[in-house]
Structure formats: C-alpha cells, structure tokens
Amino acid sequence: MFELAIKNILFYKGRSITTFLLSYISATFFVIYVAFLDGSHISMLQNSLKVYTGSIQIYQKDYRDEGGYDYLIYNNQKIFNILDKTEGIEAYTSRVETFGIVSTQENSSAMMLSGVNFEKEANISELKNALIEGVYNSYDNCLYMGVDLAKKLDLSLNDEVSFVGSAIESSFVADIFKVCGIFRTGMYEFDANSAFLNRNYFDTLFYAQNTSSYIVVKAKDLNKNDALASNIRSHLSENEKLYTWQELMSAMVEAMKVDSIFGYISMALLFFVIFFVILIYGFINISARIKEFGTLKSIGISDRQIDTLLFLEIFIISIFALILAGLSGGYVAYYYELHPIVIEGMSEIYKDYGIISDEIPTSFNLYTIFCNVGLILFLNLLSIVYPIYYVRQYSPIEAMRHV
Amino acid sequence: MYKTIFSLALKNALLRKTRALLLIFMIASSMSFMLSLEGLYNGMTKNMIDMTLRSDTGEVSIYAKDYRLKQEIKYAIKEAQSIKDQLQHHPSITSVITRLKVSGLGASATKSYPVDLIGINLIEEESFGEFSAFVKEGNLDLGKNGCIVGKQLAKDLKLRLNAKLVFSTQDSSNTLQSKLLRVKAIVHTTNINIDNKAIFIPKKVLSEFIGVDPALATQIAIRTQDKDLQEELRLRYRKLEVLNLSEINPMLAQMKEMMVVFNAISFSIVMGVVFIGILGVMYVSILERIREFGIMLAVGYSYTNIQIQVIFEAVFLALLGFLLGSIFSLASLYYLSHYGLDLSEFSDGLQSFGMSSIIYGDIQPEYFLRTFYAIIFASVLSVFLPLRTIKKLNPVDVIKADS
Q1: Cα A315 from chain centroid (whole Å)
Q2: I need a labelling partner for B167 at 20 to 30 A (CA). Which of A187, A258, A305, B11 fits?
Q3: H helix or E strand, kind and range, residue B310
Q4: Residues of B with CB below 8 A from A68's CB?
C-alpha cells in the first residue's frame, strides 16, 4: 500500500504539488504567526513583571479590595520568617506605598511615594537598571523619581520639592525632598506618577516601622511560581492574601487572551479556505481515479485498503510539507527570538497601554510548533474523509464503468 | 449563437454537481468568513475612534503650545472663549466646546490616585458627543458639588454613587487647594484616559476653584466633516497647536492603518487561495472535455466561442458562490452589527486597551463590491491556463486520440 501510495503521489503531480505547497505555506505561516503572537505577549507580560510587579505579592486581606492604611501588613517580620524558610525564592522585600501631592514653586502633581529598601529592590525589580541620572541607592530625604514626573514638575537633579500626605497613623505629613536620582522604566503611568524614598527615612517620617502595603517575592523559576505560591499560601494566616502575577495583571492577561483568540480566528480563515482547496483537489483527483479504484476492488482490494491508500497519500504529502514547514517556521521563530524585530518609536505610541519596548520578539517553543503543525495535519487528513466516502459509494462494476 | 453558448456553459458548469457545489460552497463560506472578520475588526476600530472623538478630541482639537507636553494650567488658551465664539459661526463646524483640565490627587475614604479634573459644559458636551450616552450609573444632575467619574477610576477608588471624593491640586497662585466632590454619575467611554482618571465637573466651578478666568480653556474641541478645516485653523491660529485625532492619539491612527493592511493581506490571501480552487476545478473540467471541444472546433465553432463558453462557466460558478456568500455574509454582519460579539468575560482586559466588551460589526457596501470584483477577476483569470491547452488543439487529432 505504501509503495502504491508513493507511486500515486508521483504520478498525480498537480494534486501532490498543490497540496504540498498549500500545506507548507499555511503551516509555515501559522508557526511564524503564533511565534510572534506568543512572543509579543510573553515579552509584554515579562517586561511588566520584572519592572516592578514581581512574581508574587502578599497583602493583608482586603487591602486590594478596600485599600487604605487600615489594611496594611503591620507585622512584616512574621511573613519574612515564613519566606526565609521557603525554598524557591530568589529575593523578597516589603514596600509601603502612599499617595500625596508633590509641589515645586510653580507646579504640583499627585505622586505615588513608595518606601523601599533599595538594596533588596535591586534584586527584585528593574528599578536600579532604570536609573538614567543621579544615584539609585539614595539616602535620607533623597527621592528616586520617574522621568516623566520630573519633566512634569520641571525638576532636575538636586532640586527640592515639597510633599504633603498622611502618615500611617493618619497624622499630617509634610517634608522637603531632594531629587537625587531619575529613572525611566518605559511604563508611562509609572514613570509619570512614582517616586521612591529609602525605607529608613520613610519609616521615620510615616511611622511605618515593620509595616508594609505588601511584600513582593521573586521566584527563582517563574515556571514553578504557582507551586511556590501554594507553598507560601499554606503558611499564611487567614488575614493575609497572596496574589500571583497572573492575578495581579489579570487585565493584561485577559487582553492577551482576547488578542490570541482574534489571532487564531484570523488564522482559521486561512485554514478554512486552504482546507476547502485541498479537499477540492483531493476530490477531483479521486473522482478521476474511480475507474482505477473499480479495478482495484475487482481484483480483491477491500474498501478499507483503498481508504488506507488514500489516507496514506495525503498523509505522506502532508508529513513532508509539515516537517519542512516546522523546520523553516521554527528557524524563523528561533532567529527572531534571539534577534527581535525592532520598530523604532512603537513604545512611545503605545505607552498608555503599557508597551515599554520597541522590540517584537518571537517565542520559540517546540511544543507550540508541534501543536500548530499537528493542527494542519489534522485538517489535511480531514479533507480526505469526503473523497473516501465518495469512492465507497461505487460498487466495483459501477466504478469500472465510470466516465 | 451566443444563446447556445450560454446554454451549453450553464449545463456544463453544473455537470459535475458535487465538484461544482464544493467550489460554490468554498467561495461562499470563505467570503462570508472573511467579510464577517473584516466587519468585526473595522467595527472595533471604528467604535474606538468614535468614542474618542465624542468623549475627547473631536475631529480637530486646539491646544496652547506646550500644553500637551507640560499639562499645566499656565499653558492654557487665554482667548479660548473668543475663539470658540468665532468658530461657532463657521459653516463647516457642527459643534465646538471648550474644556479646562487640571491634574491632582483624588482621594476617596480609603484610596488615593492621580486624577484629572476636567471642567465641561454638560449641555454643550451633549451636542458634541452625546455625553449622556456614556453614563452607566446615576444622572447628570450635578447639583452643588456633584461630579462625574470615569468607570475604572470609580472602581479603583472604590467610589459609588453619592460617595465623597476630595480633589487636591495647586491653584493659579500656586497654593494647594482641596475640593470636596460627590459622585453623581459614573461614565464608561472606552477612552482609557477618561475611564481611568477623569473626574468631570462644570467648567465654571473648576475655574472658580483654581482661580482662573472662566474664558480660559486647556482644549477647544471641534466636530466637523470638513477635511480641510484643520489646515485652515492652523493658518488662522498660528500661535496655537491645531491637531487632528491621528496626531493626538497616534495609537488609534496606527491601529486603523494596521486594520486596513491586515484586511488587505487577508483579502489577497483568501482570494489567492480561492483562485487556486477555481483554477483546479476549471482545469480538470476542461481537460475532461477535450474531446468535446475538439468536436466543437470540428463542427465550426471558433476558438473565441469556446473561450466565451469556458469563461462563462467559470464566472457562473463564481457568481453562484458570490451570491450565496453575500447571503451568509449579510446574515452574519447583520447579527454582529445588531447584537455584537459579547466578550464580557474579558471585559477588564478589553477595557485596559480601550475597547468595549461587546464588539459590534460594521457593514459597508464596499466589502461586497470589492469581493465581487475579486471573485470575477479570479474566475476569469483561472481559465486562461486551461484555455491555452484548448488553443493548441487540432480537432482531428483530439477526436482520434480519445476515440
């Protein structure tokens, strides 16, 4: 059967070449398309994740729902002790976030002021790498300020600003800060609204000792983040709540899902048309060979064997096309994962939407490539079902008399 | 003579019913799938642009130089009221409004966020962009301290109707001022700059609060259908920035362009594959009937007559496909434009990218017209290769060879 299938493939060149080319082109296109789709999503999520979010955050219950100082963690040390005993954590730190008004003599703006441990923060987020001017590890009343906030307030290094807000026990806080460092993460909202103060000074000013808005954790292996989250969660009390990065960035994850759905629907259109063309070419080919099948049946070849023959023909053509497509599409995916396409100015245009890089990388994932190619193979095999059914309708005599 | 040719063409086109039906169904289903997607994508972009035009920019917006960069009240348009009065009498302007915007800190009982306080005239906003249609909760009767809050901001600040909200900012004399507001309505515009951080109050109230002339505005927004108006206003107000939607929101403009490119690529690919499908069917159909064409040539038919017959066969099949496809497409687009595609499950994700959770399709006659031309072109083109085979025929040889 296999030899006969090969002979038929070589004999009916038109059908073989068309099926081969359509399968090859659609599969290659699909592999590359999905690689770019997944790559851009992974890049967006990971950029956001590593800039500031971390892979896990631990809150006092209701902080994220209700907010405010009533729902702060008032015993950092207790959670630190749990984290110290947990395997799989690369680093952790606590942050206190508060909002207030920051003013110069001429301008003012709302600002999110975070009290952070700069040394620990460097192991968790990209804040240190985001430094563009001045110093990162600032001290006393030194502010590490977002570049867009500095621009908005017309501030340069060593300029002074006043800050008005409220302390943890709800008293009034006012102080003069000096701009010692300016950072750019590329996340526009973040750079336009945030500034950081070293934790010791912040704690004294805001009465925030051993307190935090949340504790942020960086997993050693992001792929094992869910297991790590479960492990930590099992040690937390009912009053503490843990969120993984998927939960923290649920809106972005959802948006990616929608984008992927639309991407797959768009690709489905191409497959749909190609499926029909392969079906039509297969059908034309088979309907022209009815006499041949009649002869085969009359010499004792069963319907099942003819089904196998037709199945083998499409399978062999498809498998060759798809191996080649997997290799060429995979190579493109691999190449652009290492050397992402750069579109100058893209992050500027899409800054409101959290795009922080001009790079569009692909994601080279063998499992995804295998699934994509497998889907095309499935559609190709499906396209032979109707022609097989059509051939089965003929008895050997009818088939041999077929014109 | 032509009547006979057409009659022959019709009979031959449907001679192999299964093959003809497969081809017709392929054209119809591919077309309806493609047009539904195009309508959906265009509807999505159109909706985003329409919401931004109505809630914010209009077709043309005027700002003072540097305002968009600095976003400070000192860069407001001082003669805004007189410009508005002039523009109201312009024949091609359907609506013109002025807005005043200041940034500051919005604080609810539990949370604080950087927000924009926007002073508007509700009556004018209604004729400008049907503002009341954005209201999701409450009503526009603001009373003394009433305000309207963007949907996402209300969610972030945990604000409900009648909740209190304090807005703090620097006034025109650089003194920090706070204002107590009460939420009277919550709006959802799908414009992320409004939904995420806008609080609306009457412009007069805002002018008084920050101590500026009521004639002052940070933005003059204009609704018009006149494509040349922007240039005219640029020349007239050289000291101001006169911008259109693409300049104010390049992301939307790029999205629109990307949709056009994407639709064009999808269209070309689908039509290319449809062409291959028709080509296969017509080629086999002609090769099967070589003897018939030989006889026709022998009894005095000219090559042109056969050419007309074959072209007509292909066009006839394509037209049937187009008609069936038009019915499917109309039904699908009608459904999408009236009921939309409900993606409420992903509403947070869609909202973060400024999209509505129900995406409505868009029906345009040009979709059908373009597809009609492409299908006719593909069908005519598909018979040229088989016709070349007929042209080389010698009637006597053909009849001898097949008999």
Answers
A1: 34
A2: A187
A3: helix B303-338
A4: 109-111
